[in-house]
């Protein structure tokens, strides 16, 4: 009996010790990873990473079978908030413009008057951000002058010297300003430049020899350079005791993709794109590790998203699964992008409907910056601060409609779980064909709009009403609400003269600042003549 009682006492002591150990471990985990939002200090640092041609099907957080290639992005997602209903624009130019300005880019003139669908900068475009548009670094500097701001990577908003990001609130810049995919010949198309601030420091390709190319046969150290620069600028900002905003814009996944030497053949896909994605993922890992090393995790918000969806029609492109379509389309595969917000006490997955303009305003909200009310009732032109909804896990009705434009054409809109296509033109992605949507030419569907329930049918494969049969109750009840929303949008977004109208060959990268010192200036042998970037064409709107 005594032996039994001693055994019971020992067992109870072990039980108490085990319970205490578990409580200690749980409290440590909660203190490190599960601090309630109200216990967080308000962050003042912001890092935004935008990746061209990154799709839903490319990240393990959205497509688990991809997790072997994206461990750091998945770590970011597990520690942050995954956005399930985030929408970009139909061009990377419009996406970056919308994200930086906090306003739908078409609403302030980012379109071509002669081309109903175009919002992508041409290589000889004269576009410069208008003074009436204030972008994110300028907004932050208005709140605190000491903000350190840097843009790293591909600048999408103009290649003229006057369009350089250092003229629009960014203290410094490292990267490119032109589409690197263009085949240069130094006669019609100049070699793509690489810039430190507003001065040329190199050109991507070396005429007559590939030995010194910054990109050669799909291999480049550019992403590594950008990754190291992220670390440097955050270290410098912390040493100066200043808040910072770093924007990293990556084009490594854009066909033809490039990756660093150590990533060649290092992905499960075995393609250039897959290898490049591994390196993009490592950049995110470097970012998170640096924040931890510098003890900046509690005061920093990190946003990672896509400025365009995947080029799903090409073997060397990414995946927009489970959606149909590819980059540039108005289908879900052309506009619905992955997005993760890390920091500010946000955790989990959100079903909140969001645009990139909303992401701009919400990021400011997480930093404690008030942006004021929208100038019109439904906020179709401006972003909405959804930070409160994201913190509580609720879905805010203040953003219930997403207009989807191609250039100045309202192609579709989503409201709640429903999406209507008023106009259509979608790519021919292998294995995908949508009746009335897949077409090389712009098609007007306004008389018989195409309606989908994109919650039940995210691939947009089953028309509500079965081939437009109007006896479906949802077609007759839901469609008028969406048509009313479309009328509201078109009445509040009006067009005059587009900012993408004027082109001139002289605005290409022939003789940018700094080229003389490096003997990298190129002769302009062609006649300079300002002209409309497009000839007039049928818009499909009549």
At a glance:
By secondary structure, the chain is an alpha+beta fold. The protein has ten helices and 21 strands. Strands 1, 2, 3, 4, 5, 6, 9, 10, 11, 12 and 13 form an eleven-stranded mixed beta sheet that branches.
What is the secondary structure topology, with strand pairs?
Blueprint lengths: L1 H32 L11 E7 L19 H9 L1 E7 L4 H10 L34 H8 L4 E7 L17 E5 L16 E4 L2 E5 L11 E2 L2 E2 L1 H19 L3 E7 L21 H22 L6 E7 L25 H4 E2 L1 E4 L5 E8 H11 L20 H6 L8 E6 L2 E7 L2 E4 L1 E2 L18 E2 L5 E4 L19 H20 L9 E2 L27 E2 L10
Parallel strand pairs: 1-9, 1-10, 2-13, 3-4, 3-9
Antiparallel strand pairs: 2-11, 2-12, 4-5, 5-6, 7-8, 10-12, 14-15, 15-16, 16-19, 17-18, 20-21
Helix pairs in contact: 2-6, 3-8, 5-6
Question: How would you portray this structure in words?
Answer:
The structure is a single chain. The chain is α+β, with helices and mostly antiparallel strands and 542 residues long. The chain is 26% helix and 18% strand. It contains ten helices and 21 strands. It has helices at 2-33, 71-79, 92-101, 136-143, 222-240, 272-293, 332-335, 356-366, 387-392, 473-492; strands at residues 45-51, 81-87, 148-154, 172-176, 193-196, 199-203, 215-216, 219-220, 244-250, 300-306, 336-337, 339-342, 348-355, 401-406, 409-415, 418-421, 423-424, 443-444, 450-453, 502-503, 531-532. The strands form five sheets. Strands 1, 2, 3, 4, 5, 6, 9, 10, 11, 12 and 13 form an eleven-stranded mixed sheet that branches. A hairpin with a 2-residue loop joins strand 14 (401-406) and strand 15. Helix 2 (71-79) crosses helix 6, helix 3 (92-101) packs parallel to helix 8 (356-366) and helix 5 (222-240) packs parallel to helix 6. The chain is globular. It starts with a helix and ends in a 10-residue tail after the last strand.
């Amino acid at each position: 009996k005594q032996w039994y009682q001693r055994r019971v006492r020992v067992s109870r002591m072990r039980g108490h010790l085990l319970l205490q150990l578990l409580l200690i471990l749980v409290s440590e985990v909660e203190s490190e990873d599960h601090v309630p939002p109200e216990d967080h200090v308000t962050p003042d640092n912001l890092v935004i990473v935008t990746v061209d041609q990154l799709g839903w099907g490319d990240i393990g957080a959205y497509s688990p079978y991809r997790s072997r290639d994206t461990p750091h992005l998945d770590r970011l997602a597990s520690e942050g908030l995954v956005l399930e209903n985030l929408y970009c624009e139909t061009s990377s130019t419009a996406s970056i413009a919308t994200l930086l300005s906090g306003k739908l880019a078409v609403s302030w003139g980012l379109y071509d008057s002669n081309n109903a669908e175009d919002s992508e900068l041409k290589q000889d475009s004269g576009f410069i951000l208008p003074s009436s548009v204030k972008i994110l670094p300028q907004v932050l500097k208005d709140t605190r002058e000491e903000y350190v701001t840097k843009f790293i990577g591909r600048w999408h908003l103009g290649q003229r010297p006057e369009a350089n990001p250092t003229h629009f609130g960014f203290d410094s810049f490292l990267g490119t300003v032109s589409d690197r995919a263009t085949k240069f010949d130094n006669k019609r198309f100049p070699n793509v430049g690489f810039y430190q601030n507003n001065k040329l420091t190199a050109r991507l390709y070396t005429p007559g020899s590939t030995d010194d190319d910054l990109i050669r046969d799909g291999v480049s150290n550019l992403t590594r350079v950008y990754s190291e620069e992220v670390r440097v600028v955050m270290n410098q900002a912390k040493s100066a005791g200043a808040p910072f905003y770093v924007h990293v814009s990556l084009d490594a996944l854009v066909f033809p993709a490039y990756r660093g030497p150590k990533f060649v053949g290092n992905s499960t896909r075995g393609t250039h794109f897959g290898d490049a994605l591994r390196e993009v993922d490592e950049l995110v890992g470097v970012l998170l590790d640096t924040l931890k090393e510098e003890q900046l995790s509690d005061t920093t918000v990190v946003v990672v998203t896509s400025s365009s969806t995947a080029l799903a029609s090409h073997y060397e492109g990414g995946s927009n699964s489970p959606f149909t379509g590819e980059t540039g389309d108005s289908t879900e595969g052309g506009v619905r992008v992955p997005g993760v917000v890390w920091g500010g006490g946000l955790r989990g997955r959100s079903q909140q409907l969001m645009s990139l303009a909303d992401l701009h305003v919400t990021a400011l909200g997480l930093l404690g910056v008030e942006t004021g009310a929208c100038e019109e009732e439904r906020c179709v032109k401006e972003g909405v601060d959804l930070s409160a909804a994201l913190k509580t896990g609720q879905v805010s009705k203040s953003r219930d409609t997403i207009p989807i434009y191609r250039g100045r054409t309202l192609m579709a809109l989503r409201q709640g779980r429903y999406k209507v296509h008023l106009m259509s033109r979608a790519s021919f992605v292998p294995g995908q064909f949508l009746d009335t949507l897949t077409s090389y030419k712009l098609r007007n569907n306004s008389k018989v709009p195409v309606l989908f329930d994109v919650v039940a049918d995210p691939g947009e494969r089953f028309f509500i009403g079965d081939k437009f049969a109007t006896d479906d109750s949802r077609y007759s009840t839901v469609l008028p609400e969406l048509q009313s929303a479309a009328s509201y949008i078109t009445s509040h977004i009006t067009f005059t003269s587009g900012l993408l109208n004027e082109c001139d060959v002289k605005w290409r990268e022939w003789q940018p600042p700094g080229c003389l010192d490096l003997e990298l200036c190129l002769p302009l042998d062609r006649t300079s003549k300002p002209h409309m970037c497009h000839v007039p064409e049928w818009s499909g709107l009549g």
